[in-house]
Amino acid sequence: MIDIGANLAHPSFLIDYPQVLERAWAAGVEHIVLTGSDRDSNRRVAELAAADPARLSCTAGLHPHHASDWTADDAVLICELAALPQLVSLGECGLDYYRDLSPREVQRRVFAAQLELAIELRKPVFLHQRGAHEDFLSILREYRPQLAEVCVHCFTDTREAMESYVALDCYVGITGWACDPKRGAPLRAVVPHIPGERLLIETDAPFLLPNNVPRGQRPSSIHSDKPGIDGRRNEPCYLPWVAQALAELRGESFEALAAGTTANARRFYRMPSR
Q1: Which stretches in the chain have pLDDT values below 70?
Q2: pTM for this prediction
Q3: Inter-residue long-range contacts of 206-209, CB under 8 Å, 24+ positions, other chains counted
Q4: What is the phi/psi pair of residue 38, to 5°?
Q5: N or C end of the chain, less CB within 10 A?
Q6: Considering its fold, how many domains does the chain have in total?
Q7: Beta bridge pairs of residue 59
């Protein structure tokens, strides 16, 4: 399996980063794409991925939460990082009207600026959309003909939204949100309708711990000797639980879903097949 998005530059992983990777490999994760979302994390994930290029890659972008921080220096940094072999995509970028941590008009401008960079650099894009479907879709439609591959990551929207992205030849990334029968019920109803060739899986660690992970295997148990680690911290070793939930929702075997999403991830990120 390939985890298409994990925020391993997050401070919560400073205490046990090597062990996080060991647990991921032991769980059957063969590759992790480390998500860059601001200046510091963009630099950090590039350093981390360079240490194990066979099993780690990275992205670089500015999350809409940080759109107000955008300057020409961010564009320069992204272009510099894009020249590195471990950088496989631009992003995370997009729109977030749910939290509105940056003004919406600024978010739209910075989103468009990063799409223009992706076109110039001929890189795939790893996109974020929450509570902003109409504006997000409008901007994406404008730039889509010139873009390489596109993934709308951590998708939690409606079937109609999903179908509009698939119609634009986008991939759809699903997280542990789909493992929650209560909060994730609307998404769980959408999952069976995502075309198999467009489906990707991710943890978005340290966020969105799958709630189908057995209690004895949850962070509160396996990290009981490390009080500095949040008992709800997600990590890439829990990716199989995302895959299992999606396989059940789609009426597929775990093996078929894992193989299909791995092939999709390799195609999206332009990774060589094994």
Answers
A1: 220-222, 224-228
A2: 0.96
A3: 206/7, 206/10, 206/12, 206/13, 206/230, 206/233, 206/234, 206/235, 207/7, 207/175, 207/234, 208/154, 208/175, 208/176, 208/177, 208/234, 209/176, 209/233, 209/234, 209/238
A4: -160, 180
A5: C
A6: 1
A7: 89
Q: What is the CATH number of the domain that holds 35?
A: 3.20.20.140
Answer yes or no: is 274 within a domain: no
Tally Cβ neighbours within 10 Å of residue 105: 10
Q: What is the pLDDT of residue 227?
A: 61
Residue 12, CB-side half-sphere exposure with 13 Å CA sphere: 17
> Does 26 map to a domain?
yes
Indicate the residue type of 181. P
Q: Does residue 110 fall inside a structural domain? A: yes
* Separation of CA 172 from chain center: 10
Q: Please report the pLDDT score of residue 226 as a whole number.
A: 67
User: Residue 175's Cα: distance from chain center in Å?
Assistant: 8
User: Domain range for residue 94?
Assistant: 2-269
68: tokens are 């107000």
CA 35 to chain centre: 7
Evaluate whether residue 228 is within a structural domain. Answer: yes
Structural tokens at position 208: 């969105």
- Which two three-digit tokens encode residue 252? 């597929």
| Res 219: pLDDT | 74
